[in-house]
Protein backbone atom coordinates (compact mmCIF):
# COMPACT_ATOMS: atom_id res chain seq x y z
CA UNK A 1 0.00 0.00 0.00
CA UNK A 2 1.48 3.35 -1.06
CA UNK A 3 2.37 5.60 1.87
CA UNK A 4 1.12 8.57 -0.17
CA UNK A 5 -2.47 7.45 0.50
CA UNK A 6 -1.88 7.34 4.26
CA UNK A 7 -0.38 10.83 4.18
CA UNK A 8 -3.51 12.38 2.69
CA UNK A 9 -5.71 14.63 4.81
CA UNK A 10 -7.76 13.89 6.76
CA UNK A 11 -5.36 11.15 7.80
CA UNK A 12 -7.89 9.48 10.10
CA UNK A 13 -10.17 8.85 7.10
CA UNK A 14 -7.56 7.82 4.55
CA UNK A 15 -5.70 5.53 6.94
CA UNK A 16 -8.90 3.66 7.72
CA UNK A 17 -9.65 3.45 3.98
CA UNK A 18 -6.17 2.05 3.36
CA UNK A 19 -6.67 -0.52 6.14
CA UNK A 20 -10.03 -1.54 4.69
CA UNK A 21 -8.78 -1.76 1.11
CA UNK A 22 -6.05 -4.17 2.19
CA UNK A 23 -8.81 -6.70 2.95
CA UNK A 24 -10.41 -8.59 0.00
CA UNK A 25 -14.17 -7.99 0.19
CA UNK A 26 -16.11 -9.31 -2.80
CA UNK A 27 -19.88 -9.39 -2.50
CA UNK A 28 -21.05 -12.72 -1.04
CA UNK A 29 -17.47 -13.43 0.12
CA UNK A 30 -17.28 -11.02 3.04
CA UNK A 31 -15.92 -13.41 5.72
CA UNK A 32 -12.56 -11.65 5.94
CA UNK A 33 -13.94 -8.11 6.06
CA UNK A 34 -16.56 -9.13 8.63
CA UNK A 35 -13.80 -10.46 10.89
CA UNK A 36 -11.74 -7.34 10.18
CA UNK A 37 -14.57 -5.04 11.31
CA UNK A 38 -15.38 -7.18 14.36
CA UNK A 39 -11.73 -7.21 15.42
CA UNK A 40 -11.64 -3.45 14.95
CA UNK A 41 -14.67 -2.91 17.20
CA UNK A 42 -13.41 -5.32 19.84
CA UNK A 43 -9.97 -3.69 19.84
CA UNK A 44 -11.67 -0.43 20.85
CA UNK A 45 -13.50 -2.14 23.71
CA UNK A 46 -16.88 -1.38 22.11
CA UNK A 47 -19.94 -3.62 22.05
CA UNK A 48 -19.57 -5.51 18.76
CA UNK A 49 -21.74 -8.28 17.33
CA UNK A 50 -23.18 -9.89 14.21
CA UNK A 51 -26.86 -10.33 13.47
CA UNK A 52 -28.28 -13.51 11.92
CA UNK A 53 -27.37 -12.54 8.34
CA UNK A 54 -23.84 -11.39 9.39
CA UNK A 55 -24.29 -7.63 9.36
CA UNK A 56 -21.92 -6.15 11.97
CA UNK A 57 -23.16 -3.68 14.60
CA UNK A 58 -20.81 -1.68 16.83
CA UNK A 59 -22.15 0.53 19.61
CA UNK A 60 -20.34 3.53 21.06
CA UNK A 61 -21.72 5.64 23.95
CA UNK A 62 -22.21 9.38 23.60
CA UNK A 63 -19.28 11.64 24.41
CA UNK A 64 -19.51 13.80 27.52
CA UNK A 65 -22.24 16.40 27.25
CA UNK A 66 -23.94 14.69 24.28
CA UNK A 67 -25.99 12.16 26.22
CA UNK A 68 -29.20 14.15 25.76
CA UNK A 69 -29.03 14.02 21.95
CA UNK A 70 -30.98 11.57 19.80
CA UNK A 71 -29.11 8.29 19.26
CA UNK A 72 -27.97 7.79 15.67
CA UNK A 73 -27.13 4.97 13.28
CA UNK A 74 -24.11 5.43 10.99
CA UNK A 75 -24.50 3.02 8.08
CA UNK A 76 -22.39 1.74 5.20
CA UNK A 77 -21.90 -1.54 3.33
CA UNK A 78 -18.80 -3.71 3.52
CA UNK A 79 -18.73 -5.28 0.05
CA UNK A 80 -17.41 -3.70 -3.14
CA UNK A 81 -17.91 -4.20 -6.87
CA UNK A 82 -15.09 -6.14 -8.47
CA UNK A 83 -14.26 -5.01 -12.00
CA UNK A 84 -10.90 -4.96 -13.76
CA UNK A 85 -9.53 -4.16 -17.17
CA UNK A 86 -9.08 -7.21 -19.38
CA UNK A 87 -5.31 -6.74 -19.45
CA UNK A 88 -5.01 -6.36 -15.66
CA UNK A 89 -3.79 -9.40 -13.74
CA UNK A 90 -5.46 -9.23 -10.33
CA UNK A 91 -7.06 -11.70 -7.92
CA UNK A 92 -9.83 -9.95 -5.97
CA UNK A 93 -10.15 -12.95 -3.65
CA UNK A 94 -6.55 -12.65 -2.48
CA UNK A 95 -5.20 -9.16 -3.15
CA UNK A 96 -5.82 -5.78 -1.56
CA UNK A 97 -6.56 -2.84 -3.84
CA UNK A 98 -3.46 -1.17 -5.32
CA UNK A 99 -4.12 2.58 -4.93
CA UNK A 100 -2.28 5.68 -6.10
CA UNK A 101 -2.73 9.47 -6.15
CA UNK A 102 -3.43 11.21 -9.45
CA UNK A 103 -3.76 14.95 -8.85
CA UNK A 104 -6.93 15.44 -6.79
CA UNK A 105 -7.99 11.82 -7.30
CA UNK A 106 -7.26 8.52 -5.62
CA UNK A 107 -7.42 5.69 -8.14
CA UNK A 108 -6.67 1.97 -8.35
CA UNK A 109 -4.36 0.37 -10.88
CA UNK A 110 -6.60 -1.38 -13.39
CA UNK A 111 -9.42 -2.24 -10.97
CA UNK A 112 -12.33 -0.71 -9.12
CA UNK A 113 -11.20 1.38 -6.16
CA UNK A 114 -13.79 0.37 -3.56
CA UNK A 115 -14.53 3.97 -2.57
CA UNK A 116 -18.13 2.82 -3.05
CA UNK A 117 -18.77 2.32 -0.12
CA UNK A 118 -15.29 2.07 1.40
CA UNK A 119 -14.99 5.78 2.12
CA UNK A 120 -18.28 5.70 4.03
CA UNK A 121 -17.13 2.69 6.04
CA UNK A 122 -13.75 4.36 6.68
CA UNK A 123 -15.52 7.49 7.94
CA UNK A 124 -17.53 5.44 10.41
CA UNK A 125 -14.42 3.60 11.57
CA UNK A 126 -12.57 6.90 12.13
CA UNK A 127 -15.45 8.23 14.24
CA UNK A 128 -15.58 5.05 16.32
CA UNK A 129 -11.84 5.21 16.97
CA UNK A 130 -11.64 8.93 17.75
CA UNK A 131 -11.31 10.19 21.31
CA UNK A 132 -11.92 13.84 20.37
CA UNK A 133 -14.91 13.91 17.97
CA UNK A 134 -18.11 14.97 19.77
CA UNK A 135 -21.10 12.76 19.02
CA UNK A 136 -24.33 11.30 20.48
CA UNK A 137 -24.76 7.59 21.14
CA UNK A 138 -23.81 5.71 17.95
CA UNK A 139 -24.78 2.40 16.44
CA UNK A 140 -22.50 1.66 13.50
CA UNK A 141 -24.27 -0.65 11.06
CA UNK A 142 -22.06 -2.38 8.50
CA UNK A 143 -24.24 -4.30 6.05
CA UNK A 144 -23.19 -7.11 3.72
CA UNK A 145 -23.83 -7.91 0.05
CA UNK A 146 -25.30 -4.56 -0.89
CA UNK A 147 -23.92 -4.67 -4.42
CA UNK A 148 -25.36 -8.00 -5.55
CA UNK A 149 -28.60 -8.38 -3.64
CA UNK A 150 -29.04 -5.93 -0.74
CA UNK A 151 -28.93 -9.10 1.37
CA UNK A 152 -27.80 -7.47 4.61
CA UNK A 153 -30.43 -4.72 4.52
CA UNK A 154 -33.21 -7.06 3.44
CA UNK A 155 -32.53 -9.42 6.33
CA UNK A 156 -31.91 -6.91 9.14
CA UNK A 157 -34.68 -7.58 11.64
CA UNK A 158 -36.66 -4.94 13.44
CA UNK A 159 -35.82 -4.23 17.07
CA UNK A 160 -32.04 -4.58 16.79
CA UNK A 161 -31.32 -0.90 16.21
CA UNK A 162 -32.22 1.70 18.83
CA UNK A 163 -31.21 4.83 16.91
CA UNK A 164 -33.74 7.49 15.91
CA UNK A 165 -31.75 8.95 12.99
CA UNK A 166 -29.86 7.03 10.27
CA UNK A 167 -27.00 8.63 8.37
CA UNK A 168 -26.23 6.58 5.24
CA UNK A 169 -22.84 7.46 3.70
CA UNK A 170 -23.23 5.91 0.25
CA UNK A 171 -23.77 8.67 -2.32
CA UNK A 172 -21.28 10.03 -4.84
CA UNK A 173 -21.75 13.80 -5.28
CA UNK A 174 -20.65 15.96 -2.37
CA UNK A 175 -23.08 18.78 -3.17
CA UNK A 176 -26.10 16.47 -2.96
CA UNK A 177 -28.20 15.32 -0.04
CA UNK A 178 -30.29 12.28 -0.92
CA UNK A 179 -33.75 11.76 0.48
CA UNK A 180 -34.98 9.03 -1.87
CA UNK A 181 -33.81 6.27 -4.21
CA UNK A 182 -34.95 3.66 -6.69
CA UNK A 183 -35.92 0.10 -5.92
CA UNK A 184 -34.89 -2.78 -8.13
CA UNK A 185 -35.61 -6.28 -9.37
CA UNK A 186 -33.48 -8.92 -11.11
CA UNK A 187 -34.88 -10.27 -14.38
CA UNK A 188 -33.14 -13.48 -15.44
CA UNK A 189 -33.95 -15.39 -18.62
CA UNK A 190 -32.69 -18.97 -19.11
CA UNK A 191 -33.21 -21.85 -21.48
CA UNK A 192 -31.46 -24.89 -22.91
CA UNK A 193 -30.86 -25.53 -26.61
CA UNK A 194 -29.56 -28.26 -28.86
CA UNK A 195 -26.08 -27.81 -30.25
CA UNK A 196 -25.34 -28.73 -33.86
CA UNK A 197 -22.19 -29.91 -35.55
CA UNK A 198 -20.37 -27.07 -37.26
CA UNK A 199 -21.11 -27.25 -41.02
CA UNK A 200 -18.26 -28.08 -43.36
CA UNK A 201 -16.63 -25.26 -45.29
CA UNK A 202 -17.20 -22.81 -42.44
CA UNK A 203 -14.87 -20.09 -41.18
CA UNK A 204 -14.47 -19.31 -37.46
CA UNK A 205 -14.32 -15.79 -36.07
CA UNK A 206 -13.99 -14.20 -32.64
CA UNK A 207 -15.81 -10.89 -32.21
CA UNK A 208 -14.69 -8.65 -29.34
CA UNK A 209 -16.40 -5.49 -28.12
CA UNK A 210 -14.27 -3.61 -25.58
CA UNK A 211 -13.03 -0.20 -24.47
CA UNK A 212 -16.42 1.03 -23.25
CA UNK A 213 -16.64 3.23 -20.17
CA UNK A 214 -19.02 1.02 -18.22
CA UNK A 215 -20.17 2.48 -14.94
CA UNK A 216 -22.96 2.30 -12.39
CA UNK A 217 -26.17 0.95 -13.91
CA UNK A 218 -28.22 3.38 -11.82
CA UNK A 219 -26.21 6.58 -11.48
CA UNK A 220 -24.80 6.46 -15.04
CA UNK A 221 -27.73 4.94 -16.94
CA UNK A 222 -28.86 8.32 -18.36
CA UNK A 223 -25.50 9.17 -19.93
CA UNK A 224 -26.03 7.35 -23.22
CA UNK A 225 -23.10 5.02 -22.63
CA UNK A 226 -22.61 1.96 -24.80
CA UNK A 227 -23.77 -1.46 -23.56
CA UNK A 228 -21.43 -4.17 -24.84
CA UNK A 229 -24.20 -6.79 -24.86
CA UNK A 230 -26.50 -4.66 -27.00
CA UNK A 231 -23.70 -3.69 -29.39
CA UNK A 232 -22.65 -7.32 -29.77
CA UNK A 233 -26.21 -8.41 -30.42
CA UNK A 234 -26.52 -5.78 -33.14
CA UNK A 235 -23.48 -7.22 -34.90
CA UNK A 236 -24.69 -10.80 -34.58
CA UNK A 237 -28.22 -9.99 -35.70
CA UNK A 238 -27.08 -8.26 -38.89
CA UNK A 239 -24.61 -11.01 -39.79
CA UNK A 240 -27.20 -13.73 -39.13
CA UNK A 241 -29.77 -12.05 -41.38
CA UNK A 242 -27.34 -11.29 -44.22
CA UNK A 243 -24.83 -14.14 -44.06
CA UNK A 244 -26.37 -16.90 -41.96
CA UNK A 245 -23.87 -16.40 -39.12
CA UNK A 246 -24.13 -19.03 -36.38
CA UNK A 247 -23.15 -18.52 -32.75
CA UNK A 248 -20.99 -20.96 -30.86
CA UNK A 249 -20.77 -18.99 -27.61
CA UNK A 250 -21.13 -15.51 -26.10
CA UNK A 251 -19.64 -14.10 -22.90
CA UNK A 252 -20.79 -10.53 -22.30
CA UNK A 253 -20.86 -8.23 -19.29
CA UNK A 254 -20.11 -9.09 -15.69
CA UNK A 255 -22.11 -7.74 -12.75
CA UNK A 256 -25.83 -6.94 -12.77
CA UNK A 257 -25.27 -3.40 -11.50
CA UNK A 258 -22.43 -2.50 -13.86
CA UNK A 259 -23.04 -1.29 -17.42
CA UNK A 260 -21.32 -3.96 -19.59
CA UNK A 261 -17.93 -2.88 -20.89
CA UNK A 262 -16.91 -5.98 -22.83
CA UNK A 263 -18.39 -8.87 -24.78
CA UNK A 264 -16.77 -11.73 -26.70
CA UNK A 265 -18.51 -14.05 -29.16
CA UNK A 266 -17.25 -17.07 -31.09
CA UNK A 267 -19.10 -17.48 -34.38
CA UNK A 268 -18.94 -19.08 -37.82
CA UNK A 269 -19.96 -18.05 -41.33
CA UNK A 270 -20.01 -20.10 -44.49
CA UNK A 271 -16.75 -19.92 -46.41
CA UNK A 272 -18.52 -18.53 -49.48
CA UNK A 273 -19.48 -15.40 -47.49
CA UNK A 274 -16.10 -14.86 -45.87
CA UNK A 275 -14.98 -11.68 -47.65
CA UNK A 276 -18.47 -10.20 -47.92
CA UNK A 277 -19.08 -10.77 -44.20
CA UNK A 278 -15.90 -8.96 -43.15
CA UNK A 279 -16.65 -6.05 -45.49
CA UNK A 280 -20.23 -5.69 -44.27
CA UNK A 281 -19.18 -5.89 -40.61
CA UNK A 282 -16.62 -3.15 -41.07
CA UNK A 283 -19.33 -0.83 -42.36
CA UNK A 284 -21.53 -1.57 -39.32
CA UNK A 285 -18.58 -1.12 -36.96
CA UNK A 286 -17.88 2.29 -38.48
CA UNK A 287 -21.55 3.24 -38.05
CA UNK A 288 -21.57 2.18 -34.39
CA UNK A 289 -18.34 4.00 -33.62
CA UNK A 290 -19.72 7.14 -35.26
CA UNK A 291 -22.87 6.91 -33.14
CA UNK A 292 -20.83 6.57 -29.93
CA UNK A 293 -17.92 8.88 -30.83
CA UNK A 294 -18.84 11.38 -28.11
CA UNK A 295 -19.75 9.10 -25.21
CA UNK A 296 -17.47 6.15 -26.05
CA UNK A 297 -14.33 7.45 -27.81
CA UNK A 298 -12.32 4.36 -26.82
CA UNK A 299 -14.79 1.79 -28.16
CA UNK A 300 -13.01 -1.01 -30.00
CA UNK A 301 -14.71 -3.74 -32.05
CA UNK A 302 -12.48 -6.50 -33.40
CA UNK A 303 -13.40 -9.34 -35.74
CA UNK A 304 -10.55 -11.81 -36.22
CA UNK A 305 -10.35 -15.30 -37.66
CA UNK A 306 -10.03 -18.02 -35.05
CA UNK A 307 -10.17 -21.78 -34.63
CA UNK A 308 -13.36 -23.34 -35.92
CA UNK A 309 -15.62 -24.33 -33.00
CA UNK A 310 -16.96 -27.88 -33.02
CA UNK A 311 -20.53 -26.94 -32.08
CA UNK A 312 -22.93 -24.07 -32.80
CA UNK A 313 -26.43 -23.09 -31.68
CA UNK A 314 -29.59 -24.47 -33.22
CA UNK A 315 -30.59 -21.84 -35.79
CA UNK A 316 -34.20 -21.57 -34.64
CA UNK A 317 -33.20 -20.93 -31.02
CA UNK A 318 -30.46 -18.54 -32.13
CA UNK A 319 -32.84 -16.43 -34.20
CA UNK A 320 -35.32 -16.20 -31.33
CA UNK A 321 -32.76 -15.23 -28.70
CA UNK A 322 -31.10 -12.60 -30.90
CA UNK A 323 -34.51 -11.04 -31.52
CA UNK A 324 -35.33 -11.15 -27.81
CA UNK A 325 -32.10 -9.38 -26.84
CA UNK A 326 -32.75 -6.81 -29.54
CA UNK A 327 -36.26 -6.23 -28.18
CA UNK A 328 -35.16 -6.08 -24.51
CA UNK A 329 -35.20 -2.46 -23.36
CA UNK A 330 -31.87 -1.10 -22.19
CA UNK A 331 -31.31 2.32 -20.64
CA UNK A 332 -33.79 4.95 -19.45
CA UNK A 333 -37.41 3.81 -19.71
CA UNK A 334 -39.14 6.76 -18.05
CA UNK A 335 -38.09 10.04 -16.44
CA UNK A 336 -39.72 11.18 -13.22
CA UNK A 337 -42.73 13.46 -13.61
CA UNK A 338 -42.23 14.80 -10.07
CA UNK A 339 -38.51 15.60 -9.80
CA UNK A 340 -36.50 17.35 -12.51
CA UNK A 341 -33.77 15.32 -14.23
CA UNK A 342 -34.44 12.18 -12.17
CA UNK A 343 -34.58 8.84 -13.95
CA UNK A 344 -37.69 7.05 -12.71
CA UNK A 345 -37.34 3.65 -14.42
CA UNK A 346 -34.51 1.95 -16.31
CA UNK A 347 -33.03 -1.40 -17.25
CA UNK A 348 -29.50 -2.73 -17.66
CA UNK A 349 -29.01 -5.77 -19.91
CA UNK A 350 -26.12 -6.79 -17.72
CA UNK A 351 -24.98 -10.30 -18.56
CA UNK A 352 -25.31 -12.58 -21.60
CA UNK A 353 -23.87 -16.09 -21.40
CA UNK A 354 -24.45 -18.63 -24.18
CA UNK A 355 -22.36 -21.79 -24.09
CA UNK A 356 -22.62 -25.59 -24.09
CA UNK A 357 -26.36 -25.68 -24.72
CA UNK A 358 -27.32 -23.18 -22.02
CA UNK A 359 -28.49 -19.56 -22.23
CA UNK A 360 -28.51 -17.10 -19.32
CA UNK A 361 -29.39 -13.42 -19.67
CA UNK A 362 -29.42 -11.19 -16.58
CA UNK A 363 -30.99 -7.74 -16.27
CA UNK A 364 -31.35 -5.29 -13.39
CA UNK A 365 -34.50 -3.18 -13.58
CA UNK A 366 -34.70 -0.10 -11.35
CA UNK A 367 -37.51 2.32 -10.52
CA UNK A 368 -38.61 4.71 -7.82
CA UNK A 369 -42.20 3.67 -8.64
CA UNK A 370 -43.07 0.06 -7.83
CA UNK A 371 -45.76 -0.26 -10.49
CA UNK A 372 -43.43 1.10 -13.17
CA UNK A 373 -40.69 -1.28 -12.04
CA UNK A 374 -42.91 -4.28 -12.58
CA UNK A 375 -44.29 -2.86 -15.82
CA UNK A 376 -40.80 -2.79 -17.34
CA UNK A 377 -39.87 -6.15 -15.78
CA UNK A 378 -42.95 -7.73 -17.37
CA UNK A 379 -42.01 -6.18 -20.71
CA UNK A 380 -38.59 -7.84 -20.49
CA UNK A 381 -40.18 -11.07 -19.36
CA UNK A 382 -42.45 -11.04 -22.40
CA UNK A 383 -39.58 -10.38 -24.81
CA UNK A 384 -37.63 -13.38 -23.53
CA UNK A 385 -40.59 -15.72 -23.11
CA UNK A 386 -41.39 -15.23 -26.80
CA UNK A 387 -38.11 -17.00 -27.60
CA UNK A 388 -38.86 -19.90 -25.26
CA UNK A 389 -36.96 -18.70 -22.20
CA UNK A 390 -38.01 -19.28 -18.63
CA UNK A 391 -37.93 -15.90 -16.90
CA UNK A 392 -37.44 -15.43 -13.17
CA UNK A 393 -38.20 -12.15 -11.38
CA UNK A 394 -36.30 -12.15 -8.08
CA UNK A 395 -34.57 -10.03 -5.46
CA UNK A 396 -37.15 -7.25 -5.55
CA UNK A 397 -36.40 -4.45 -3.10
CA UNK A 398 -38.36 -1.24 -2.50
CA UNK A 399 -37.39 2.31 -3.24
CA UNK A 400 -37.07 5.01 -0.60
CA UNK A 401 -39.90 7.55 -0.59
CA UNK A 402 -38.65 11.13 -0.03
CA UNK A 403 -39.59 12.92 3.21
CA UNK A 404 -39.19 16.64 2.57
CA UNK A 405 -40.25 17.44 6.16
CA UNK A 406 -37.38 15.49 7.72
CA UNK A 407 -35.78 17.07 10.81
CA UNK A 408 -32.34 15.71 9.90
CA UNK A 409 -32.71 17.06 6.36
CA UNK A 410 -33.25 20.57 7.74
CA UNK A 411 -30.12 20.21 9.86
CA UNK A 412 -27.93 19.00 6.98
CA UNK A 413 -29.13 21.74 4.65
CA UNK A 414 -28.39 24.39 7.30
CA UNK A 415 -24.88 23.07 8.00
CA UNK A 416 -24.06 22.70 4.30
CA UNK A 417 -25.12 26.28 3.56
CA UNK A 418 -23.07 27.59 6.49
CA UNK A 419 -19.93 25.70 5.46
CA UNK A 420 -20.13 26.26 1.69
CA UNK A 421 -22.07 29.51 1.22
CA UNK A 422 -24.48 27.82 -1.15
CA UNK A 423 -27.48 25.55 -0.98
CA UNK A 424 -27.00 21.78 -1.45
CA UNK A 425 -29.00 19.89 -4.03
CA UNK A 426 -31.72 17.94 -2.25
CA UNK A 427 -32.33 15.00 -4.55
CA UNK A 428 -33.53 11.47 -5.00
CA UNK A 429 -31.16 9.18 -6.89
CA UNK A 430 -31.64 6.32 -9.33
CA UNK A 431 -29.22 4.07 -7.51
CA UNK A 432 -30.37 1.49 -4.97
CA UNK A 433 -29.60 2.83 -1.51
CA UNK A 434 -30.32 0.67 1.51
CA UNK A 435 -32.48 3.29 3.24
CA UNK A 436 -35.72 2.21 1.61
CA UNK A 437 -35.18 -1.41 2.64
CA UNK A 438 -34.09 -0.55 6.18
CA UNK A 439 -37.15 1.65 6.52
CA UNK A 440 -39.51 -1.31 6.11
CA UNK A 441 -38.54 -2.59 9.58
CA UNK A 442 -37.69 0.84 11.02
CA UNK A 443 -40.48 3.05 9.62
CA UNK A 444 -40.09 5.78 12.26
CA UNK A 445 -36.35 6.26 11.75
CA UNK A 446 -35.42 9.58 10.12
CA UNK A 447 -33.00 8.78 7.28
CA UNK A 448 -30.67 10.79 5.08
CA UNK A 449 -27.83 9.92 2.67
CA UNK A 450 -24.73 11.84 1.59
CA UNK A 451 -21.09 11.20 0.74
CA UNK A 452 -17.91 12.45 -0.97
CA UNK A 453 -17.51 12.81 -4.72
CA UNK A 454 -16.76 9.49 -6.41
CA UNK A 455 -16.68 9.12 -10.19
CA UNK A 456 -16.75 6.01 -12.37
CA UNK A 457 -18.12 3.74 -9.64
CA UNK A 458 -18.46 0.07 -10.59
CA UNK A 459 -15.75 0.42 -13.25
CA UNK A 460 -11.92 0.35 -13.26
CA UNK A 461 -12.06 4.10 -13.80
CA UNK A 462 -13.48 4.59 -10.29
CA UNK A 463 -11.83 7.51 -8.51
CA UNK A 464 -12.38 9.47 -5.31
CA UNK A 465 -11.76 13.20 -4.90
CA UNK A 466 -9.25 14.10 -2.18
CA UNK A 467 -10.59 17.65 -1.84
CA UNK A 468 -14.12 16.31 -1.54
CA UNK A 469 -13.09 13.87 1.19
CA UNK A 470 -11.92 16.85 3.25
CA UNK A 471 -15.28 18.55 2.67
CA UNK A 472 -17.04 15.31 3.63
CA UNK A 473 -15.03 15.02 6.86
CA UNK A 474 -15.79 18.58 7.94
CA UNK A 475 -19.49 18.15 7.12
CA UNK A 476 -19.87 14.91 9.09
CA UNK A 477 -18.15 16.23 12.20
CA UNK A 478 -20.43 19.25 12.42
CA UNK A 479 -23.51 17.08 11.83
CA UNK A 480 -22.54 14.82 14.73
CA UNK A 481 -22.03 17.79 17.04
CA UNK A 482 -25.49 19.20 16.22
CA UNK A 483 -27.74 16.15 16.28
CA UNK A 484 -31.15 17.25 17.69
CA UNK A 485 -32.04 16.84 21.34
CA UNK A 486 -34.13 13.93 22.54
CA UNK A 487 -37.80 14.78 22.87
Automatic annotation (TrEMBL):
Its keywords, alphabetically, are: Cobalt, Hydrolase, Metal-binding, Metalloprotease, Protease, Zinc
User: CDD domains of this UniProt entry?
Assistant: M20_pepD
Annotated PANTHER family? CYTOSOL NON-SPECIFIC DIPEPTIDASE
Q: What Pfam families does the database record attribute to this sequence?
A: M20_dimer, Peptidase_M20
Q: Which cofactors, if any, are listed as required?
A: Co(2+); Zn(2+)
- State which Enzyme Commission number(s) the record gives: 3.4.13.18
Domain of life of the organism encoding this protein:
Bacteria
What is the source species? Answer: Flavobacterium franklandianum
Q: Does the keyword ATP-binding apply?
A: no
| Protein name, per record | Cytosol non-specific dipeptidase
Q: What class of enzyme is it?
A: hydrolase
Q: What family name appears in the similarity comment?
A: Belongs to the peptidase M20C family.
Amino acid sequence: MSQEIRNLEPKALWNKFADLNAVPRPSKKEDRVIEFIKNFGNSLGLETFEDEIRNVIIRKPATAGMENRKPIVLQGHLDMVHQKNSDTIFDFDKQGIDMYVDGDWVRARGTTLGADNGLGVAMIMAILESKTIKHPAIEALFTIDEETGMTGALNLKGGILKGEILLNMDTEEDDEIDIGCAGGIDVTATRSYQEEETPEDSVGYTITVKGLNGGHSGMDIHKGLGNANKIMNRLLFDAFENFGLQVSEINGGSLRNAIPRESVAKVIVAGMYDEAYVFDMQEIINDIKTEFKTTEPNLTIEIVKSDLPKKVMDLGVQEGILRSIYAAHNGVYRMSADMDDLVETSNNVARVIIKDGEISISCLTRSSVETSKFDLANGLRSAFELSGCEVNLAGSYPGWTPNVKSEILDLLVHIYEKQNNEKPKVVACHAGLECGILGTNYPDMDMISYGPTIQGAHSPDERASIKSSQKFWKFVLEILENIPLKK
